[in-house]
Amino acid sequence: MTLPHFSFCSAFLLGLTGLAFHRTHLLSALLCLEGTMLSLYVGLSLWSTSFSSPSMSLLPMLVLTFSACEAGAGLALMIATTRTHGTDKLHNLNLLQC
Q1: For the chain, what is the largest distance between any 2 Cα atoms, rounded to a whole number of angstroms?
Q2: Residue 66's pLDDT is what?
Q3: What's the CATH code of the domain at 63?
Q4: What per-residue confidence (pLDDT) applies to 10?
Q5: Where are the transmembrane segments (predicted)?
Q6: How many domains is the chain built from?
Q7: 97 inside domain
C-alpha cells in the first residue's frame, strides 16, 4: 500500500470514528462529515489519476461540489437549531419535541 492510499484510508476511518464517537455537538459531527467527504475527494482524485482517463477527471470535482453544498446546508441547519433550541448539543435535539 502506497503512502497516498494509506493516508486516504486513515483519513476516511478517522472521520468515521470521529462521527461515531464524538457526537456531543452538531458542529463536531459536521466537521467529521466534511473530513470524510474530503478524504473521498482525495481518493477519487487518486483513482482518476491512476486511470489517466479524461472522463474520470470530472468525478472528483462533482464530489467536491456536493461536499460544499452539504457543508453549507449543514451550517444553515446548525444555525437554525441553535437559534430555536439555544444550543447545538445533539442530545437536546429530539424530533418528537419539535
Answers
A1: 52
A2: 92
A3: 1.10.287.3510
A4: 92
A5: 56-80
A6: 1
A7: no
Q: CB of 12 within 8 A of CB of 36?
A: yes
Q: Is residue 96 part of a domain?
A: no
What 36-43 contacts at long range (C-beta under 8 Å, 24+ apart), as own/partner pairs, is 36/11, 36/12, 37/63, 37/66, 37/67, 37/70, 38/11, 38/67, 39/8, 39/11, 39/12, 39/15, 40/12, 40/67, 41/67, 42/4, 42/7, 42/8, 42/11, 43/8, 43/12
First to last CA, the chain: 48
Whether 39 contacts 12, CB under 8 Å: yes
Report whether pLDDT(76) > 90.
Answer: yes
- Give pLDDT tens digits for 6-51: 888 999 999 999 989 877 888 888 899 999 999 999 888 888 777 7
Give me 45's grid cell.
Answer: 482524485
Q: Residue 81 is which amino acid?
A: T
Write out the residue range of the structural domain in which residue 15 sits.
3-91
